[in-house]
Design goal:
The protein has one domain: Purple Acid Phosphatase, chain A, domain 2, CATH 3.60.21.70. Strands 9, 10, 11, 19, 20, 21 and 22 form a seven-stranded mixed beta sheet that branches. It is α+β, with helices and mostly antiparallel strands. It is globular. Bound molecules: fe (ii) ion. The site of fe (ii) ion (FE2) has 7 residues, from loops.
């Protein structure tokens, strides 16, 4: 693992696309500010973004052409950026970059197999953007080793003092930063991250397991608030290359009360609601989170919309499993996991609202909508008919580093999926095998590639053992 002395980076983050420019941020981690980055428009100086104990993060903002390839120089090396967003292009989509326990002690050769393959893929035909759909970091263990949070989320201290909470905050900040730095230092990740601008939206493990679906006694406790504050600051710095007060233009709420964002390019847009900041046992998003997606549904330009829903928008009848589980004592953890899903009985009304919104989005824009999700450590896909003969495609790719659950779980989910589900009458959801696969759920590590060729979008999964799947067309009438 890298020590605090080894500089880490650059990691490119896409701030926004404005006019014919991609506005980027380059993150670097190291004791001293790196020399200015050599950008197409001239030198871009690094400024201090944040410090977490020994870890100091620097950021340079610069712009490159959106519709042509470009390059920049950093610390004596030249890095090519694919750009060319106006024509044929490829995006990569990944999720679940880690595991709950001892992720940082895994052998890098095993842990990063899929990252290396994605790098080889990029070397053959470059990706214009790298989309990260949640669980960019598994931070669960940062609550360990501190007396106030060691029992999280079950055993919580009574009325901790301000001084003790300050100490906890410092412990958590350092823990989050250490994990991000360790991940960003992994060579297979770093190689891609320096060449392909990333866009990220968080899920629960970027905060802690089940965040948003935990009992209010835990989530709203002083320790719960400290965990969320540390996770949020670290996500702003490491996932979005910003801090409070300077969120880039892609974010809907400049003050960051939710972290939903959207990016529009030629013929496509990416919409990433924040399903964590405002989540509780009884709601998926708050008023501002919903108003953001409602406005996204009013767009009238015919651009293919990729809706990044960290948890799958289309899925099987998990409410049945949830009901059965209520009768079994001692499996609260799994109940939390199910409560996290759109399909939970508690979120049924929100789920239907979101699905109707997607239908309106496709109708208003006259373009296709594709949902991209991670979370389940399996690869699968689903379809739901929309109005006007369109189909909502749900593509699930998870995880890039998280190993899959046992085969029997994949088969159980497959059997459950056969029961069917139709939250909107006459709009049955079908869970389907990936192209070329027999089972509905592929229990292999995986990543997803989205390709636009001659204006037609398609998707292909890269499966750890089975290899790349044949393409699945995402464009109606193509
Ligand atoms: Fe995950």
């Amino acid at each position: 693992m890298a020590s605090a002395d080894d500089p880490i980076g650059p990691v490119l983050i896409l701030d926004e696309i404005r006019g014919d420019r991609m506005h980027l941020a380059a993150l670097a981690i190291g004791r001293a500010a790196p020399d200015p980055l050599d950008a197409p428009d001239g030198p871009a100086p690094f400024e201090h973004l944040a410090s977490f104990g020994e870890i100091t993060v620097w950021r340079a903002r610069f712009a490159v052409p959106a519709e042509a390839p470009s390059s920049y120089r950093f610390a004596g090396s030249t890095y090519e950026i694919a750009g060319a967003l106006g024509g044929d292009l490829r995006f990569a989509y990944v999720s679940c970059n880690g595991e709950e326990h001892a992720d940082l002690s895994r052998a890098p050769a095993e842990r990063n197999v899929m990252w290396r393959r994605l790098g080889e893929d990029h070397a053959e035909a470059p990706f214009a953007l790298l989309l990260h759909g949640g669980d960019q970091v598994y931070a669960d263990e940062v609550t360990q080793d501190h007396p106030l949070s060691a029992g999280w989320p079950v055993d919580l201290p009574d009325a901790p003092s301000e001084a003790a909470l300050d100490e906890l905050a410092a412990h958590l900040r350092a823990g989050f930063a250490h994990r991000y730095a360790a991940l960003y230092a992994q060579p297979a990740f770093a190689w891609l991250a320096a060449r392909v601008p990333s866009l990220m939206q968080w899920d629960d493990h970027d905060i802690c397991d089940g965040w948003g679906s935990l009992p209010p006694e835990a989530a709203e406790s002083a320790v719960g608030r400290a965990i969320f504050a540390a996770a949020r600051e670290a996500a702003l710095v490491f996932q979005h290359a910003c801090r409070d007060g300077d969120l880039p233009g892609r974010f809907d709420a400049p003050a960051g009360d939710h972290l939903g964002w959207s990016v529009a390019g030629p013929g496509f847009r990416l919409v990433a609601p924040d399903l964590r900041s405002q989540r509780s046992l009884t709601r998926v998003m708050g008023a501002t989170g919903w108003s953001f997606v409602e406005r996204m549904a009013e767009e009238t330009e015919p651009r293919h919309c990729f809706l990044m829903s960290s948890v799958p928008l289309l899925g099987p009848r998990l409410s049945l499993v949830e009901r059965a589980m209520r009768r079994v004592p001692g499996i609260q953890k799994y109940e939390d996991d199910l409560r996290d899903q759109w399909q939970s009985r508690a979120h049924r009304a929100a789920w239907v609202r979101m699905l109707r919104l997607v239908d309106r989005m496709a109708a208003r824009s006259g373009a296709d909508v594709t949902a991209l999700s991670g979370e389940i450590h399996l690869a699968t896909r689903a379809e739901m008919p929309l109005g006007g003969g369109r189909v909502l495609h749900q593509l699930v790719a998870s995880g890039i580093a998280h190993r899959p659950p046992p085969q029997f779980w994949a088969r159980l989910l497959g059997a459950l999926a056969a029961l069917g589900e139709a939250p909107i009458p006459e709009r049955p959801i079908r869970i389907l095998p990936l192209p070329g696969q027999r089972g509905r759920y592929a229990a292999e590590r995986n990543a997803l590639t989205l390709t636009r060729a001659d204006g037609v979008w398609s998707a292909s999964w890269s499966l750890e053992h089975s290899g790349p799947t044949p393409p699945l067309s995402l464009t109606t009438g193509a």
